[in-house]
Amino acid sequence: MTDVLLAVGTRKGLFLGRGRKGRWEFTGPHFNAEAVYSVAVDRRGAVPRLLVGGDSSHWGPSVFHSDDLGATWTEPARPAVRFPKDTGASLERVWQLRPAGPAEPGVVYAGTEPAALFRSEDGGESFELVRSLWEHPTRSTWVPGGGGEGLHTVLTDPRDPGALTVAVSTAGVFRSRDGGRSWDPSNTGISAVFLPDPDPEFGQCVHKIDRDAADPDRLYLQNHWGVYRSDDGGAHWTDIGGGLPSDFGFAVAAHPHRADTAYVFPLNADADRVPAGRRCRVFRTTDAGATWEPLSAGLPSGDHYGTVLRDALCTDDADPAGVYFGNRNGELYASADDGDTWRLLASHLPDVLCVRAAVLEP
């Protein structure tokens, strides 16, 4: 029996779902009235740990954790993520929480606004600023995107704990091969159509990156205009958006098991951020972007205006895979068959900011 935990971060709290035999039960909102931009499910320990980046309009941002699947929550007495005084910066929000691989069981990364990377070695209870990226020579010329200057993507490499890839809006992709001691821009082939030089070394508005299930060197990237693939770990990028109705969007998610398979949710344009053609459709590639197919069985068939944000599309690791997305209409959809068919799990939620799913051990 597959037991799936589904975490849905919204503008006004966190909702937790448990799915068994196709039946779902939800609790929430946890962190009532707080914006939840980031969630992680860390299954490396004896029990799963949930990590949540909440943002209270009164108390400010914080990172919480739960070791009982959300029944109770702990907030450290000292803020888990905070900028050292000498940086002159203060935390606006935590955009990303990412547990490292099994070789580093206590390591969790956090991506923040202002754009910075933090590292924890105690399971996310306390974090330290990765100064090498904060002090990168290009940093003084990074420019905030429309949603702010956020480090929103952190990818670890299952083969090498020292290999890290991050993405910043709007500085682009940066890679480290030495555990974060040094970083290089990694944007060759990614266009920045909004800049005088459309092919800069850095300055691209990358929206999200994910890694292929079978080939760790294959990455999929959704840009501010452009969907790309890399076959060399991010050193070079190739445009694969030609078969889509629009190559503007925020989200991209790789299939958890199938090689060459990924999902995107195209939007009309940067100036018209609604589903492409005003149709609620997820697009899937099974050949690494050579072709794309629309997935809409069970989704609304009429005009639709629900925008899917960068972290609001995800997969679980079941077989067949569950695929999930939430939108700014407050709708939550799920597929239990790799995206072939869909069902509405919840509606009238607050604005959905992030969705995370994981299969729990029976």
Polypeptide structure, described:
The protein has 362 residues and is mostly beta strands. 1% of the residues lie in helices and 44% in strands. The protein contains one helix and 28 strands. It has one helix at residues 131-134; strands at residues 3-10, 13-20, 23-30, 35-42, 49-56, 60-66, 93-99, 108-113, 116-120, 128-129, 150-157, 160-169, 172-176, 184-185, 206-211, 219-223, 227-230, 238-239, 248-254, 262-269, 272-275, 282-285, 293-295, 313-315, 323-326, 332-335, 343-346, 352-360. The longest helix has 4 residues, at 131-134. The chain starts with a strand and ends with a strand.
Rg, nearest Å: 19 Å
- Estimated helix fraction: under 10%
Biggest β-sheet description? 5 strands, antiparallel
Please trace the helix and strand order, writing H or E for each element: EEEEEEEEEEHEEEEEEEEEEEEEEEEEE
Tally of contiguous helical segments: 1
Number of strands: 28
Helix/strand/pairing category? mainly beta
Q: How would the global form be characterised?
A: globular
Please give the alpha-carbon distance between the first and last residues: 7 Å
